[in-house]
Amino acid sequence: MSDNISVLGLGLMGTALAESLLAAGHQVTVWNRTPAKAEPLLAKGAKQAATPEEAVAASPLVIACLLDYPSVKATLEGAPLEGRVIANLTTGRPSEARETAEWVAGRGGEYVDGGIMAVPPMIAQPGALILYSGSRTAFERYEGALSAMAEPRFTGDDPGMAPLLDLAMLTGMYGQIAGLLEAAALVRSAGYPLTDFVPSLLVPWLNAMAAQQPQWAEKMASGDHSTQVSNLEINRAGVANLVQTFYEQGVKPDLLLPLKAVIDQRTARGLGHEGLSGLIEEL
Ligand code: FVH
C-alpha cells in the first residue's frame, strides 16, 4: 500500500530515509532548510515543499530527521499538526522526547519517537533497525510504511523509551570501542601486528564473551550476583595486573581505570565473593 509521507531534513540520514520510502513506492514530499539538497530526490519522484508548513500539510505521516530536538521544534513551530503523526527520528535525550510528545499532542498531533540503529548506507538493508516508542496506535497504523526504512521495533508507550534504548546501545558500543583501543595500544607497544591480532584473536574472543551476556542480564535483573565462574576478588587482582602491565609497556590504561575503580569500590564493601554482574549495583 502506498502512503503519503513527508520527510523533514535531508542530511545524510534524512536523504537515505526518503530514498528508501520512494523505492518502496510511497508518495514522498520533502523539505530541507537548504533546498538544493532535495534535487537528487526530486529526480527519483519526490515532491519538494517550499516550507515545513507545506510539507506537514501534504502528508498524514511526517518523519523528522534533523540535527537535534530544538531544530525539530523550530521547524514544526508554525505547522498544522492537527491529525498528523510526527515520527521524530532525530537523536536526542529521553526528556526531550517526552517534552516533544506533549508539545505535539498539545497541537492535536500524535507522536512517535525513533532511535535509528544504523548508518545511512544500512537503511533499507537487512540488519537496519529503528526503535520506536510513544503512540502505539500511530505506530501500528504506519508500521508497514516505516518498515521500508528499517525493521521497526516498538518498545513502549513512553516516548522516552526509544531514545533511552538508543543511547544504551551506543553505550555498549562505546564500551566495546574503549576495549578495542586499549587492547590495540597494548599489542602495538609489543610490536605484534594489529592486522592479525584484531581479526584472528580479539574479535572471536569478544564474540564468545558476548554470547554470555544474556546470562549476565538474568543476574542483573534478579539481583542474584552469586557466581560459579569468576568472583570479583579474582577480577580485582586480574585488572590490577592488567593495569600494571600497561604502565610497564608505556601505555596509558586511562579507559580501563574507571572500571578498576568500581571493582575496587565493590570489593572494599566486602562483596568480593560476588560475580562481576554485581558492579551494576555500584552504578
Ligand atoms: N548519520 C548517521 O550515521 C547517524 C545514525 C543514527 C542517527 N543519526 C541522527 O540523525 C539525525 C540527522 O543526522 P544526519 O547524519 O542526517 O546529519 P546531517 O547530514 O548533518 O544533517 C542534518 C540535518 O539537519 C538540518 N538542520 C540542522 N540545523 C537545522 C535547523 N536549525 N533548522 C532546520 N534544519 C536544520 C540540516 O539542514 P541543512 O544544513 O541541510 O540546511 C540537515 O538536513 C541526527 O539527529 C543524528 O544524530 C544519524
Describe this entry's structure for a reader.
Residues 158-282 form the NADPH-dependent reductive aminase-like C-terminal domain. Keywords: Oxidoreductase. Residues 4-151 form the 6-phosphogluconate dehydrogenase NADP-binding domain. Pfam families: NAD_binding_2, RedAm-like_C. Belongs to the HIBADH-related family. It is a single chain. The chain is α/β, with parallel strands linked by helices. It has two domains: 4-157, Rossmann fold (3-Layer(aba) Sandwich), CATH 3.40.50; 165-282, N-(1-d-carboxylethyl)-l-norvaline Dehydrogenase, domain 2. Helix content is 49%, strand content 13%. It is built from eleven helices and eight strands. The protein has helices at 12-23, 39-42, 52-58, 69-76, 94-105, 136-146, 161-189, 194-210, 213-222, 232-248, 257-268, and strands spanning 4-8, 27-31, 47-48, 61-64, 85-88, 110-117, 129-134, 151-154. The chain has an eight-stranded mixed beta sheet, with helices on both faces. α2 (39-42) links the parallel β2 (27-31) and β3. α7 (161-189) packs across α8 (194-210) and α10 (232-248) runs antiparallel to α11 (257-268). The longest helix is centred in the middle third of the chain and has 29 residues, at 161-189. The radius of gyration is 23 Å and the shape is elongated. It starts with a strand and ends in a 15-residue tail after the last helix. The chain binds ligand FVH. Ligand FVH binds at residues 9-14, 32-34, 37, 65-67, 71, 74-75, 90-91, 116, 119-120.
